TrEMBL record:
This is TolC family protein. It comes from the Bacteria. Keywords: Coiled coil, Signal. It comes from Qipengyuania aurantiaca. It holds the Pfam family OEP. Residues 1-27 form the signal peptide. Belongs to the outer membrane factor (OMF) (TC 1.B.17) family. The keyword S-adenosyl-L-methionine does not apply. Residues 305-350 form a coiled coil. InterPro entries: MdtP/NodT-like (IPR010131), OMP_efflux (IPR003423).
């Protein structure tokens, strides 16, 4: 007895520390799933400025892509040049007598549909960036739901561990009384104390896992403190229909927009193969005679070597890769939906069976065995076996509810449009 008690001292210190943390967390506001979605910025309107770094980055990328559309619509700027010739030479060209001044304005003319191709490529990239920002919000919402469910499951396991500790404390007390009156051998009391020590150690482990799950949840909105999550599982219902909207899912739309952007980039690179002439016009003043003359010129690059063929080939390869990703996204969507739906239905059936049949039967069996043990009709090992069976069913019920919620959260993310 004394050896077990001394070994339990460090464990009880950790239990006290975790319990103090739990008490301070309970003093805070209880965070529901809706609160978590709002804190992470998922439930906030799209036009509202985001503060979560997980959303600020993708939305800023979308704003940058939209700004590039306006930039793509602009035409090339004209060029002004000023030249002074025959300045400070020798002989007849000494001084400023033979100086010639030339002022000209040049304008590069875009040929081959460069501007329209550039605008089309920028608009395709802006659409892709906007869809990726929306997908990031959807993925963050799914991650919030998943981590909240894991935190709720961890809190439920803490409650289960606390119940096990309380039950084993009662069994240890009864065993000590029965040993004192001679109705049980001392080995029964040692067995009860060992089970109690194991239950207390399991409680410490459950408390630590709960704290870790709550910290992981708070990290989704850069929270500095772990929120208090109750042990009640939130009602997360999957959408009624998914398979009919496979081509309209947000994941597939992102893949399709990627293909569209790749095709637009090909058109832009092909337009760059055509050289752009520069037309210039100006006036020249002759310093010696004071006469003026007008100038008109045209300059055209000669595409003998560089016809942008490498960039065109690279853009065509990127289009093939984007088309492949689009086909994979469409095929994987239906398979992923079917798998998630099967997991949801299976977990729901387990929850129904465990909560309505298995757990009530195990509770009743443990109640009857506990009454018999108090009256000396059943040995301690029967009580421990019945309690272990009941605890196993409670743990299975927690896991089934967690899996059902995770599958529903995945289906919600897949249904996003």
């Amino acid at each position: 007895m004394s050896a077990i008690s001394w070994r339990a001292v460090p464990v009880w210190g950790l239990i006290l520390a975790l319990s103090t943390g739990s008490a301070s967390a309970q003093a805070q506001r209880v965070v529901t799933l809706d609160d978590a979605l709002e804190l992470s910025g998922v439930a906030i309107e799209t036009d509202t400025p985001a503060t979560n770094p997980r959303l600020v980055g993708p939305r800023a990328e979308s704003e940058a892509a939209a700004a590039l559309v306006d930039q793509a619509r602009l035409r090339p700027n004209p060029e002004v040049s000023f030249e002074v010739e025959n300045l400070a030479g020798s002989g007849a060209f000494s001084g400023l007598q033979a100086t010639e001044y030339t002022l000209s304005v040049g304008q590069r003319l875009e040929l081959g549909g460069k501007r329209s191709a550039r605008v089309g490529a920028a608009e395709a990239q802006a659409e892709l960036a906007a869809l990726r920002a929306d997908l990031t919000t959807v993925e963050l919402g799914q991650l919030v739901r998943e981590r909240y469910l894991r935190a709720a499951a961890a809190a439920a396991r803490v409650e289960l561990a606390q119940d096990v500790v309380a039950r084993n404390e009662e069994l240890a007390r009864i065993a000590g009384v029965l040993v004192e009156v001679g109705r049980e051998p001392p080995l029964r009391a040692l067995r009860a104390d060992a089970a109690l020590a194991e239950a207390r150690a399991h409680l410490v482990e459950a408390e630590a896992e709960s704290l870790s799950a709550r910290i992981a949840l708070a990290a989704l909105w850069a929270g500095s403190e772990a929120p208090f999550v109750p042990a009640d599982f939130p009602d997360i219902l999957p959408p009624a229909s998914l398979m009919a909207g496979a081509a309209d899912s947000l994941t597939y739309r992102v893949a399709r927009a990627d293909s569209t952007a790749a095709a637009a980039e090909i058109e832009r690179q092909r337009s760059l193969r055509i050289p752009d002439p520069t037309v210039s016009a100006g006036v020249r003043r002759f310093g010696e005679s004071g006469d003026n003359a007008f100038l008109v010129g045209v300059s055209i690059p000669l595409p003998f070597r560089d016809r942008n063929q490498g960039n065109v080939a690279a853009a065509e390869a990127r289009l093939r890769a984007a088309n492949a990703r689009e086909a994979v996204a469409l095929a994987d969507y239906e398979q992923t939906v079917a798998t998630a739906r099967a997991r949801y239905l299976g977990a729901e059936a387990r929850v129904e069976t465990l909560s309505r049949t298995s757990l009530p039967q195990a509770e009743e069996a443990l109640r009857l065995v506990s009454i018999g043990y108090r009256n000396g009709r059943f040995p301690l090992i029967e009580v421990l076996a019945a309690a272990e069976a009941r605890d196993t069913i409670r743990e299975a019920l927690i896991a089934a509810r967690e899996q059902r919620g995770l599958a529903a959260a995945e289906l919600i993310g897949l249904a996003a449009q």
